């Protein structure tokens, strides 16, 4: 789930939890895996067994049996302070920043993105945010 942002014509997180539905694949780095295990106070091996699954791209955070990220609890992230970078960065992911069609598709998935905003607005807002 994205972090709430200051009011913006381009993006304002609505806390809907849609980006935690596990559709895109959360692929944590080894350091992120250790951080999550430490946060949950369990050994790394136990974390890997209980919360990760192998994919062709590497270990990914499991989904719940009914769907959605295993750490999503009624719209709240159980590991929020140590959630993987992809979760913290959404919707400012490289593919969305680079490709207008990805941006348009993301507007369908994320109600925090202003449907009237253009890709160039999104890029401009991001550049101002990181400068
Ligand atoms: S889908 Fe968008 S609006 Fe909903 S929680 Fe995620 S970032 Fe926020
Ligand atoms: S780790 Fe947290 S923020 Fe990331 S998809 Fe799962 S519930 Fe959402």
Please summarize what this structure is.
The protein is mostly helical and 131 residues long. The protein is built from six helices and four strands, in the order H-H-E-E-E-E-H-H-H-H.
Radius of gyration: 16 Å
Question: Which small-molecule ligands are present, each listed once?
Answer: iron/sulfur cluster
Molecular shape: elongated
Helical residues, percent? 25-40%
Oligomer: single chain
Count of helical stretches:
6
Given helix and strand content, the structural type is mainly alpha
Strand content: 5-15%
- Tally of distinct domains: 1
Pattern of helices and strands: HHEEEEHHHH
Average pLDDT = 90
Number of strands: 4
What is the topology, as strand order, of the major beta sheet?
Answer: 1-2
The low-confidence parts are none
What profile does the largest beta sheet have? 2 strands, antiparallel
In whole angstroms, how far apart are the ends?
23 Å
């Amino acid at each position: 789930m994205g972090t709430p942002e200051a009011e913006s014509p381009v993006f304002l997180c609505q806390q809907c939890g849609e980006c935690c539905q596990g559709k895109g694949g959360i692929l944590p780095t080894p350091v992120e895996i250790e951080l999550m295990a430490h946060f949950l106070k369990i050994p790394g091996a136990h974390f890997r067994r209980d919360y990760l699954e192998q994919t062709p791209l590497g270990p990914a955070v499991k989904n719940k049996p009914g769907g959605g990220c295993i750490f999503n609890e009624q719209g709240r992230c159980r590991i929020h302070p140590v959630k993987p970078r992809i979760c913290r960065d959404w919707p400012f992911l490289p593919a969305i920043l680079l490709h207008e069609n990805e941006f348009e598709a993301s507007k369908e998935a994320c109600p925090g993105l202003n449907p009237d905003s253009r890709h160039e607005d999104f890029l401009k807002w991001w550049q101002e945010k990181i400068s």
